[in-house]
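Entry type: protein chain
Record version: 2
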Amino acid sequence: MFELLKAGGILMVPIVACSILALAIIMERFWTLRASRVAPPQTVNELWRWIKKKELNGRKLKALQGSSPMGRILAGGLLNAKHGREIMKESIEHEASQVIHDLERFLNPLGTVATITPLLGLLGTVIGMIKVFAEIQLAGVGNAGNLAGGISEALITTAAGLSVAIPALIAHRYFIRRVDELVVSMEQEAIKLVEVVHGDREIDVEGA
């Protein structure tokens, strides 16, 4: 592997760095964007029980706020529920915007990696072909070994760039879709909470 990287030339260094960064982001986002962490069903069910039994207080609101991103959104709405429906909805939207920003963390760098690594590979291709033509100009086409070295460098960097970019792009699209699904789920629970608090809907406690 080291010999292969060495044969690819200096541009293999940023390509390898991009691959390490992409792998780190993918592993971190897989861990962070779990439904059980972002929008755990037990958190919502426990909140409905508190509301139904009129046990909701400041201490439990604080616990709800720190339990998960969804808990943070719901707690933000409940803290301002007494000020009316519109203020409650605005509070939920404010918290939701911050939560969404956190969920999308590192996705832009991952998309950047997916974009620039093929370009780095293409640059390696161009540099490799320049070396080939320079060798042809100096020594003609008789030295096949030198020509093969330049062509090999061009092909290795191109392959390496694509090998990093393709998984990074797939992961980036997957995580964007994952965030959208989580946001929809949290939005539905937030709407339900507003309707319950303002008497437009009955509490539906799962398993109660």
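Comment: DSSP finds nine helices and no strands in the chain.
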